[in-house]
Amino acid sequence: MNKYVKKYCVDAMSGMAQGLFASLLIGTIIKTLGQQLLRLGTNAVFQFLVDAGNFATDAHVVGAAMAVGIGFAMHVDALVLFSLVAVGSAANITGGAGGPLAVLIIAIIAAEFGSLVSKKTKVDILVTPAVTLLSGALFTVLTAKYIGIAANSVGTFIVWTTKLHPFVMGMIVSAVIGIALTLPISSAAICAAFGLVGLAGGAAVAGCCAQMVGFAVLSFKENRWGGILSQGLGTSMLQMPNIIKNPKVWLPPIITSIITGPIATCLFKIEMNGAAVSSGMGTCGLVGQIGVISGWYEPSEAAIAHGATAINPGFMDWLGVILICFVLPAVICWALGKLFRKIGWIKDGDLSLEQND
Fold it and tell me: Global pTM?
């Protein structure tokens, strides 16, 4: 059972997140850069950046990228992998707002059906793509719409509940998504699947930043500046071997996320209205922050569906992002780390990344 959990819940979701990063995320970053530069004046290069970003963020392209990422992570044969392009595109479009979850489920099913016949016949070039495409199309027609509705309903409930109870939900969303970020699963895929935007997205960004910046600062004694870069701009998942050895090292970042989450939702009212996947990225490539900023100027369709509108950010908006994403996680986790080392819960070397290489 563990083999299948890893294959479908860890590997497939990670592949899906990489597909999202290579299409929706990078496209949003490039488009946002072009849009901001166009504010300085019309320029063919700036417009090209916007156009390139639009190509990458098209729903058909994003669905295809996710499905290919899933297939690649599952190590399917080439013909199965290439056939997933059409499956992912169809599932994402048919799934609507909950398209990413539909792509995850249907791409896995189509990949498994395709793998059953791959290289089993003398006309593999016909049979494998046909089986992969037809099985994916069948499940898309039968289930994608309903998977999308279910995923969107869960996301809507979380977004609505966070608006209604920003303090409690700020703590819960921040802690849960932050923990998912450090676990060997994809917090980005989770946020994308359920369309976490708005205050809920802001809380998710806070939780992810608490883990990444928190661990980077917490482990500075052992890992120095290399650890700041690899964890603060890379991933806190690098600490999983150390967490398994001593689970207490995880407490400072988790406590930090519980503190910064409600500060984000109640005090600064930070909303992540960019692409939902950005909510689960934290400071990885600064994608979480770019998602917040792009959402100010051009909210995503998911955010608009929840009532978001474009704004001109003020001083408190910028201050909130800086404090929630960088300053507070660093300060709070550093202070908790000092306390935990003093009482012996964290010892020298407990957070070293060198022993995990």
Answer: 0.79
